[in-house]
Write a structure and sequence with these properties.
By secondary structure, the chain is an all-alpha fold. The protein has 3 helices and no strands. It is rod-shaped and about 135 Å long.
């Protein structure tokens, strides 16, 4: 719309110049043939100048549009790259949490097995007592593993939410730049 207004303005300026030149020539104290010749020459010169101006204006607008297109492509590329980095970071956090959980479960399992072995070695308790101890240790191990898994999942969701938020902000920023362009 701004381009339409700019074009209308320049069209008005050129039209005004043509009418002004024609009026000046018509009011000048010269013979009709001289005036017609001057009008024709001036009209030709103005036509050439208007054509050159239009060509320059078209070239300038085209260059600016291309520059804005390239700039917005760069912003979109940066936003996409940042989003990919955030997703990769969130994936890394999930992987780290999985590894930590696996190690914790293995440690707890080892401890539970050690407890069972100690109970068997003491022989002061019955087989029923040993099973109870093992079940208790397994339940605690599972409970601890569940807590660690929940904490890891919460952390992964938090990172994912941050990544989505930053990606949405980058998209909005890109969209605003594109709309401003």
């Amino acid at each position: 719309m701004a381009e339409e207004q700019g074009g209308g303005y320049w069209r008005g300026v050129i039209t005004g110049l043509l009418f002004g030149a024609a009026a000046a020539l018509l009011l000048a104290p010269k013979r009709g043939e001289e005036i017609r010749q001057e009008i024709a020459e001036n009209a030709s010169q103005l036509k050439d100048k208007a054509g050159d101006f239009g060509s320059n204006l078209t070239h300038t607008v085209s260059d600016k549009a291309q520059a804005l297109k390239e700039q917005s492509a760069g912003v979109i590329s940066q936003a996409r790259h940042k989003g990919e980095e955030l997703v990769a970071d969130a994936g890394g956090a999930v992987q780290d949490a999985k590894e930590h959980i696996t190690e914790t479960v293995a440690d707890l399992k080892d401890k539970a097995q050690d407890k069972v072995a100690d109970v068997k070695d003491t022989a002061s308790e019955t087989q029923a007592d040993a099973k109870e101890v093992a079940q208790d240790a397994t339940a605690k191990a599972k409970e601890a593993a569940d807590k660690v898994a929940n904490a890891a999942e919460d952390k992964a969701e938090e990172k994912s939410a941050e990544a989505k938020s930053k990606t949405a902000k980058a998209k909005e920023h890109t969209k605003e730049k594109a709309e401003n362009a």
